[in-house]
Amino acid sequence: MTRYPREVHHMARPSANQATVSRLPSTRESRPALIGLAVLLIFGGALASAWLAIQSGNRSYFVQVDQEVAQGATISKDDLTRVSLPEGFKGGVPSSDSDSIVGKSAAARLLPGTVLMRSMVSDKSGLSENQTRLTVTVDASPFISGLQSGDQLALDIGTSDGGKRQTVRAELISVGDEQGGAIAGSGGDEVAIVVSIDLSCLSVVSQGIEDRSITPALIGGESTLVKQTCEA
């Protein structure tokens, strides 16, 4: 009988540079990690919600303009309302201090919805005793547009019959917007200014307004050359 050499089978060894396949974690092993992540997200969301709730709760009421108030006009209680704003809002007047605003003058034109600032209110409370306000229409010019509320003016007033001109002291309250061609055939622009004068000068200034013979001039200091009253 012929004998054949015995075959020996050897197992192939993996080479050193052969990539090793990692075993993926089973579903049971990854479940605790997913649960931990979910708990962390829920906890973080709860903290964020609590922070937003706290922030939204820190609010206060401030004074807001409810009805338009012209520059120089006296602010009444009906002109104001209140609005809820973040507690740290700077510059606003707390609604609890609204009584300190009522009766004072608007330093600028106040539009509805405006959150009132201290700088928008004049320290002067309305009209002084024996004072009145009226509107004077004058020719528009860079001089007029450059005037500011509180400026002291001298109103040079003429007469339609050619009589002696008079000069009356006035305080500027506000300057209106220019209006083109207000006088028929003049073709010029006009602007209305609001001034405060002594009540004794009302007739003189009113006549000047009717005659359209008033020329305003800016003066400085307490000039004694311009009379403040028009008593005979």
TrEMBL record:
Region spans: Disordered: 1-25
Protein's UniProt keywords contain Protease: no
Transmembrane segment boundaries: 33-54
Superkingdom classification of source: Bacteria
UniProt xrefs under Pfam families: SAF
Entry keyword set: Membrane, Transmembrane, Transmembrane helix
Polar residues compositional bias, start-end: 15-25
Organism per entry: Aeromicrobium ginsengisoli
Entry coiled-coil feature ranges: none
Protein name: SAF domain-containing protein
Compositionally skewed regions (Basic and acidic residues) per UniProt: 1-10
Domain (SAF): residue spans on this chain: 68-121
Higher taxonomy: Bacteria, Bacillati, Actinomycetota, Actinomycetes, Propionibacteriales
